[in-house]
Amino acid sequence: MLKQRVEELTKLLNQYNTEYYVFDNPSVSDREYDRLLQELIEIEQKNPELKTPTSPTVRVGGAVLEGFDKVLHTNPMLSLGNAFNEGDLREFDSRIRKVTPNINYVCELKIDGLAVTLHYENGQFVRGATRGDGTTGEDISENLKTIRAIPLTIPYSDLLEVRGEAYMSKETLEKLNKRRAQNGEELFANPRNAAAGSLRQLDSKVTSKRELSMFCYAVPSAKQLGCKTHAESLDKIKEMGFNVNPNYEVCQSIDEVLAYIEKWSTMRTELPYEIDGIVIKVNQLDDQEILGNTVKSPRWAIAYKFPAEEVETVLKDIIFTV
Ligand code: NAD
Q1: Are 87 and 16 members of one domain?
Q2: What is the predicted ipTM?
Q3: Structurally, how many domains does the chain consist of?
Q4: pLDDT digits (tens, 9 = 90+) for 98-124
Q5: N or C: which end of the chain has fewer CB within 10 A?
Q6: Does the predicted model carry a pTM greater than 0.80?
């Protein structure tokens, strides 16, 4: 009975993953997907014998599209664990503090776009890729070059990798969906799918017309830049010319994290781009290393997800006004 449910959930989640990550065209809401994934996680936790090595609970992202060169990531591009309420966040905090008691957190807006990685050599942008399945991504360098927020030269001559979120603003998505409706084309369901669909174009002229932007939020080799904390690494890349979202904050306690979430749950409507949650990261890089990663996500970070209804309302507004 339970085994049958695991098989059912696996089949559905694999189908939804392909629609979402490979074709940028989901058939169910994120909330529905998250609900099914959570059900599978809970069954597997109580019945570890039912967990398969290829379960959707251990996979990151989707497959790599044909038509793009493949890029093997130097460091895996992981997903993030999810928190849906205060209880999940307090549990995360006590898990962290048991191992690394003297940490603080950086809270960042969770931009609803597509994770991409940028590589620089001798101060020049040389390559950029999607997350793909976390190990292998798609080489979308030519398309990324069309994004003005991405510097093509930087004042730093060693090898450097910077990661972040490529995204489409609310206004651009609205304009694009209106145009698509007039042309009888399918609408993009959300900013993430619009950004992904625009970046995974074989013709970079199409990408350049989509007016994408990017916020950078991670430097895998931050310690080599002399940084001790994640916040320092954000300041460092900002100085080099990367676009860093200005709304991040260092929080000393989980109560301060909760206050940040509360603030942005209301203020998010005023932002010109969509956010779907808040990302909470341990600030100290040494402590991040001590905490380490699971196969799917770092143990030192978590994504708080806003309830989905509000996001869907915004999209319905766009679709119904076209
Ligand atoms: P995630 O969206 O939960 O979190 C990880 C991602 O957050 C990163 O890869 C990065 O792209 C993004 N991010 C944005 N701002 C960030 C910041 N400041 N710091 C770090 N990361 C930041 O994980 P995921 O694996 O990318 O996707 C899972 C999500 O996709 C879930 O919300 C799920 O509902 C949705 N999904 C939906 C369907 C569907 O059919 N509707 C299918 C698959 C997945």
Answers
A1: no
A2: 0.96
A3: 2
A4: 999 999 999 999 999 999 999 999 999
A5: N
A6: yes
